[in-house]
Amino acid sequence: RCSHDGCTNYPVTGGVCVRHGAIKDYKRCSHDGCTNFSQKAGLCARHGTQIKRCSHDGCIYYTQKGGFCIKHEAQVKPPKRCSHDGCTNYAQKGGVCIKHEVKVYKRCSHDGCTNQAQNGGVCIRHGAQVKRCSHDGCTKQAQKGGVCIRHGAQIKRCSHDGCTNYAVRGGVCKRHGAQIKDAKRCSHDGCSNYAQKGGVCVRHGAKIKRCSHDGCTNLAMKEGLCNRHGAPVRRCSHDGC
Length: 241
Fold this sequence. Notes:
- It is a single chain.
- The protein has 1 helix and no strands.
- The protein starts with about 70 loop residues before the first helix and ends in a 165-residue tail after the last helix.
- The longest helix is centred in the N-terminal third of the chain and has 7 residues, at about 70-75.
- By secondary structure, it is mostly loops.
């Protein structure tokens, strides 16, 4: 920003903006005694530069595109709207607005791998270099300040009273109102739960894997079993924990 106290303009030259002394080399009109800026062919608009005007009857604004100014171009060729149902935002790319844009992530270049590429075109499993915790003997990924959560990385918790979940957005967790970008809601009328599969939540029909143990209705965590019936879980490495 401009180095002048309290100014938020962008610097042009010498660390300051035009308002506070930046000298920008603009070409002047070549007509004798004229100090206007030249527009085209060394002349200003007053002394001969041919500038196209909007072709709309009675309009004196400069033409921007297609022979019309910005105001009248919108009437002749209305801008495209987002193709998402019910959305009136202007389309930016791929027929949708920024809010409904589907982000395409690069996949790992390793044969048959569908993980997201992290660094060097590969995922962590296939060689992407990631920062590890600087604590002696720790192999966990560093989160903040060069250390993992266990060894001191400061992670924001949900601001809701008594909640220990990590804050996702706006200082709260998903449970207490954090709005997750691009997260789809259940398509069932009146339901605000997040969709799990097939556009619906678990309550309204999303099929999820259950524990394979006879009579157990818990969610399967790993190898077809829940934690209670033998799903392998990682235990704390602290002695006696």
